[in-house]
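Sanity check. The docking grid for pyridoxal-5'-phosphate depends on where the pocket ends up, so I'm generating a full predicted complex first rather than guessing from homology. Inputs follow.
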Amino acid sequence: MNMERDFKLGVKFARELDGKDELKSYRERFYLGEDELYFDGNSLGACSKDAEESLLEMLEIWKKNKILMWNIEDGKYFKYPQYLGSLFVPLVNADANELTVTNSVTINIHQALATFYKPTKERYKILVDELNFPTDIHATISQILLQGLDPEEVLISVKSRDGKNIEEEDIIAAMQDDVAIALLPAVMYRSAQLLDMERITKAGHEKGILVGWDLSHSIGSVPHDFKKVDPDFAMWCTYKHVSAGPGSNAVLYINKKHFGMTPGLAGWHGNKKETQFLLDHKHTPGPDADAWLTGTPNMFSMAPIEGILKLINKAGIENIRKKSLLLTDYFIFLIENRLEKYGYKNGTLEDHKRRGGHIALEHDEAYRISLALKEKNVIPDFREPNVIRIAPVALYTSFEDVYKVVDILEEIMLEKSYERFSAERMLVV
Ligand SMILES: *Cc1c(COP(=O)(O)O)cnc(C)c1O
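Predicted complex below; grid placement will be based on this.
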């Protein structure tokens, strides 16, 4: 399947691909170390000059305007959550007022479930999958407990057949009449499997189930089409492929068909803008996704989103996806042709329709190899039990970077340098 691309071994070919790369100039916008190969952009994207500039600009705005900052530029900063939300329109094809930037992914899951989870005797279960990121499950269990229900009875977790991927048929088969809500990740954080969101959402809706998606691992590398998928709600972080900085705020999407519902977690910034400053104790929710806002927006954790999203939109999410797939195809080709003899294995599905933006490189010694990589100035990340995640983020990774990391992965095996490290886990890996 990679052969159709006609990849070749050797650095010359990597340079040829770089030569043809229409996004190569974007790399200059990012702060990358001289001899460093950064492949952990799916945990924390690299800082760009664009994100830096919009953050510094926010400081200037505060310095100059103080409280008046909320009113300048036609209320841009007062309406900043939705303004930033609108910058995600090209990435997900939703209406601008269905998107708002607020809180963290975890809190947005709480918010969505607090709003949409209304268990009845007949319909009270929540469907998740066993490979999702833990915080999604923690939040879901809290919400079940807050309803006075027993998670053992209520939570259905779809099992993986191979420990890496979840079959869509298995999700659909679990969509029984007692399921109220399904909450699923678009891309699996470990294996990079991309689910068929449209098919699953449609199947859920046919069963009367509300379907919500966590896009944390796909946003910024995989384009989405919410007009087609028609999710009920969604959320995602902005610090992974989007690269808006550590702890930058998350996005919450509420399908416009749910506008007018009472938000589960109310706060004064979710009140209608026109009457917010009447400071009435009666909460009057806004007419759109902003109704789900809570407290004062975290302006400094939001500002970098403005700079980086403008850069992403200039590059175009379709172009980013095209390059991202070529980078990961090329990497898979090199794994298969150069690294398998050392015990490395590609753990990511090859079908483009089923693959996100990173590669799960498997090896029995993955943990110690990931430490040996760091010693050689390569930053990957490790996920239990045997996965090195390599994310070649399209805006700042070159084909030669991928070539170099393969060289280094080979070198580590030839030198056996990983053997010098202890297999005991560190706090953050
Ligand atoms: C990264 C990630 C999160 C992170 O949640 P925060 O509240 O931002 O810490 C949640 N869910 C998934 C699926 C993720 O990949």
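Relevant for the grid: The chain has two domains: 11-30+316-420, 52-314.
Also worth noting: The mean pLDDT is 96.
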